[in-house]
Amino acid sequence: MKKDLKDCTFIIPIRIESEDRLRNVITVLCYLVSNFDTNIIVKEVDKESVFAERALPQIQEFCEDASCIRHIFEKSDDPLFLREKILNEMLVETTTKVVVNYDCDVLFEPEVYLEAYRRIMEDECDMVYPYGEGPWQYRVRATDQVVSDFLNEDFDFKILQNASWVDNAGEGWVQFLSRDVYFEGGMENENFMGSAPDDYERGYRFRTMGYRVHRLENHICHLEHSRGMNSYPQSMSQHPYWNHNWSLWEKLQTYNKEQLVEYYSQQEYLQKYK
Predict the structure, then answer these.
(1) How far is CA 141 from CA 28, 31, 146, 161, 214, in A?
(2) DSSP conformational letter for 53
(3) Which sequence spans correspond to the domains of the chain?
(4) What is the pLDDT of residues 47-92, one digit of tens each?
(5) Which has the closest alpha carbon to 9: 120, 146, 168?
(6) Which of 136, 99, 109 is nearest to 32 (CA)?
(7) Would you call 192 exposed, middle or buried from its count of C-beta atoms within 10 A (0-12, 13-18, 19+)?
(8) Which CATH architecture does the domain made up of 3-273 adopt?
(9) Which residues pair with 166 in a beta bridge?
(10) Residue 64 burial (C-beta neighbours within 10 Å; 0-12, 13-18, 19+)
(11) pLDDT at 229
């Protein structure tokens, strides 16, 4: 029986730039659809839809019913993947109490999702990182064989863990948030352009503004993939807005609560979502 995450929407921005990213998207969505009664919005921004042509048919074949996935495709020739803007556009499409900002290459054991969801639903927290800070990341060598074994052997996480090495976990990947708080706290900062320290800024902002931010001490399984301009660390040398993005973060991390509230009250990008 699927586990109940009915009042929850996963918002997943994607651009499938390589075969391993395609494999990761398929793996993660097969897992989510198979294990949870929930809502999923996938927004793909690219020159053409790789998801519709190559990912969704495989997900539907594996899961039989993948109707919980809503796929939105936006055609774009822009080499930059403006993740912050894409997340905001998905956020306004949600109606559930809980929203999950979710990368397309990470997995947790089922009870982790349920606990993070419960913390928001029972008004214990406003924002939950479902993994610990420090050496809580399993970096998975996600070969075809590894993910095939994982999918076909009842999602046995030992398969992923045995194909991984441990690394530090920081601020990115996944956050469960109260939808109301997500809007109230300024959504995603669209002044960051693509690959950026937006994950650090988001965490700093919500904590500094006084929201109840909590971390669960669980491991995150991060499926490895090739990296281009829109992925750290390659973005350090290839991204045209790298210096702009880090300068913005350096400024914002000096702001106190009152300064952050004032800053976000003046952001023009927020007006279009009201």
Answers:
(1) 15, 17, 8, 9, 29
(2) I
(3) 3-273
(4) 999 999 999 999 999 998 999 999 999 999 999 999 999 999 999 9
(5) 120
(6) 109
(7) buried
(8) Alpha-Beta Complex (3.90)
(9) 138
(10) exposed
(11) 66
